[in-house]
Amino acid sequence: FQVKSENRKTIWNTEEVPEGSEFDDTWDPREQPEYQILFKQCVGTEDVFFGMSRKDPSTACCEDVVIKIKLPETKYSDITLDIQDKVLDLRTPKKKLLLHLPYPVDSKNGKARFLSEEETLEVTLRVSRMFDFINF
């Protein structure tokens, strides 16, 4: 048995710590908001009527993931949002959401919009899979 560690005093390897665990503070008293995860797919007539592409209705063929988060009594300026490749971290004065995403995403090119009349934050993130060039 051989330990692969640069420093023998370390008790864990950095690869063993899951991404996003630095945000996970269980002692935070803020409640988790209601949220919904939806998958979005660009489909044209060649997909629907002719079946010319390999797309199917499964999440494996979806290009985007949309997260809708209900934030009642919240102003847009009170929202702090941090997106990592596999983690969404949202904080407001009353709510906190740490969400491990179902697929890795392109964290640099997402879109977020706050629908004030619905009191909902809608975050759209592009899914980044290794072999998307095969599917699309």
UniProtKB/TrEMBL annotation:
<dbReference type="GO" id="GO:0070286">
    <property type="term" value="P:axonemal dynein complex assembly"/>
</dbReference>
<feature type="domain" description="PIH1D1/2/3 CS-like">
    <location>
        <begin position="32"/>
        <end position="127"/>
    </location>
</feature>
<protein>
    <submittedName>
        <fullName>PIHD3 protein</fullName>
    </submittedName>
</protein>
<dbReference type="InterPro" id="IPR041442">
    <property type="entry name" value="PIH1D1/2/3_CS-like"/>
</dbReference>
<dbReference type="GO" id="GO:0045505">
    <property type="term" value="F:dynein intermediate chain binding"/>
</dbReference>
<dbReference type="GO" id="GO:0030317">
    <property type="term" value="P:flagellated sperm motility"/>
</dbReference>
<dbReference type="Pfam" id="PF18201">
    <property type="entry name" value="PIH1_CS"/>
</dbReference>
<comment type="similarity">
    <text>Belongs to the PIH1 family.</text>
</comment>
<dbReference type="GO" id="GO:0005737">
    <property type="term" value="C:cytoplasm"/>
</dbReference>
<dbReference type="GO" id="GO:0051087">
    <property type="term" value="F:protein-folding chaperone binding"/>
</dbReference>
<dbReference type="InterPro" id="IPR026697">
    <property type="entry name" value="DNAAF6"/>
</dbReference>
